Amino acid sequence: MQSDASDVTGSFWTNRQRQASSLHEVPYRACFKPQLPKFFIERYSSPGDTVFDPFSGRGTTAVEAALLLRTPISNDTNPLSEILTRPRLEPPGLDEVARRLSSITVDYGARAGIDLSMFYHPRTEAEVVSLRDYLMERRESGKEDRVDRWIRMVATTRLTGHSSGFFSVYSLPPNQAASPEEQERINRRLGQEPEYRDVKKIVLRKSASLLRDVSPEVLERLSAVSGKARFTSDDSRDLVSVGDGTVDLTVTSPPFINLVDYAKDNWMRLWFNCIDAGEVKGRITVLSDLGSWKSFISATMRELFRITKPGGYVAFEVGETRKADLKEIVRECGTEAGLEHVVTYINVQRFTKTSHIWGVENNRLGTNTNRIVLFRRPAHS
After folding, report:
1. What is the 3-state secondary structure (H, E, C) of 257-310?
2. Is the residue at 226 inside a domain?
3. Would you say 356 and 324 are in contact if contact means Cβ atoms under 8 Å apart?
4. Contact 182, 118 (CB under 8 A)
5. Cα-based angle 77, 238, 344 (whole degrees, multiple of 5)
6. Which of 96, 121, 128, 367 is most deeply packed, by most CB within 10 A?
7. Is there a single domain that holds both residue 205 and residue 253?
8. Is 161 found in the same domain as 232?
9. Handedness of CA 293, 318, 307, 23 (dihedral sign)
10. Confidence of residue 47 (pLDDT cuts 50, 70, 90)
C-alpha cells in the first residue's frame, strides 16, 4: 500500500476477495462492482443506519446496503432505476415466479406497434408484447405485486443481448441497446436472422441465477429492511425527498462527462415498461464539459452536506480523464460545501480486456482503478 497526505493506494477489494451476491447480476451501463459499496458500508456505517445513493442506476449500493442490514434510500431521475432495484429487495421464490409465468396468456398475433423484426422472431415478439401488456394491466389496475415486479425486472434486463440468454438475436451487450438501424447492420454483417427464443423459459432461467445465493438467512435480512427502503427521483442538486441530517452514509458515482446517453441506451427498456423516452431524456442531466460537470458536483455536494448526519460520511467515486484530475475537483467541491476530506482511496486492479476495448493503456487513466473521495460531515456542524 502506498499513500501521501491525502491518497491511499492499494487493492482494497477485488472479485476474488469476496464473492458478491447473485442478486447483483443485472446489466446496466456504467455501474460499479458491489465490492466497492460493501467496503465503505462495512467500514463507515452500522446495521440500522441509512445509506443513500443519489445516482442509484441499477441499485448496487441499495441492494448491498439491504444485504448488510442498512436501510437504503435509492434516488435516480431515471424511473428504470426503481424497476431494477426494488424487486431485488423483496425477491420471490422461484416456484412463485414459475407459477405466475405459467398463468400469463400469450397472444401469438400480438405485435409491438413499432418495427422490432430486426430483434425478434415473430413468436418471440408476440411473447414479449403479451408479457408487456400483462404487466401494464397489472400495474394500472393496482394488482401488481412483488412477483410481477420481479418478472418485470428480469424481463427488462433480457430484452436484447449477445447470447441465447436474451430474447433478441445477437446484439450489443445488454447494457446498451442497439437502435433498429444499428441492429439491421449487425444482422447483415453477421448474416443472421432472429430465431425463436422462449421468453418465459429465459425469465425463469435468469431468475434461478439471480436467486441462487438467496438463502433463508438472506431473505430474513432483506425482509427486515425492504419495508423501510425508500425510492426517490429527485435531482441530486435538490433532494427534496430527503430530510436534513438523516443519512449516515452516501456511496455513489456521478454521471460521466458527455459519455453515456442513458435514455438512448435504454430505449428498448423504456418501451417495454411503457415509459416515454423523451420525458426521461428531459429529466436526466447531460454534462457536456468540465465546467458544467464541476458546477453540477458543487451543487450536489451542498445537498449531500445538508442531508448527512453530523459525523456521517460521503464516499464519492469518480473516473479520470486525460484533461483533468476529477478526484481533486470532487475534493474541492466537497470541502467548499462544508464536508471534511478524510482520504481518497485509489483501488488498483489487474488489467482487463474491457480496458483494452476502451483504449486504456495504463492503470492511472483506466477502468482498472476506482478513485473514491471520502468525506465526513463535521460532528458539530
Report:
1. ECCCCHHHHCHHHHHHCCCCHHHHHHHCCCECCHHHHHHHHHHHHHHHHHHEEE
2. yes
3. no
4. no
5. 85
6. 128
7. no
8. no
9. positive
10. very high
Name the grid cell of 237.
442538486
In this predicted model, what pLDDT tens digit does every residue of 18-39 receive, in sequence order? 578 999 999 887 678 899 999 9
Q: Which helix (H) or strand (E) holds 146?
A: helix 146-157
Range of the domain at 146: 94-210
229 and 160 in one domain?
no
Structural domain total, the chain:
2
pLDDT in tens, 180-231: 999 999 999 999 999 999 999 999 999 999 999 999 999 999 999 999 999 9
**pTM, entire model:** 0.90
Per-residue pLDDT tens digits for 87-108: 999 999 999 999 999 999 999 9
Cα separation, 84 vs 173, in Å, equals: 17
221/203 same-domain check: no
Residue type at 110 in one-letter notation = A
CA distances from 3 to 318, 331, 345, 351 (A): 18, 16, 9, 21
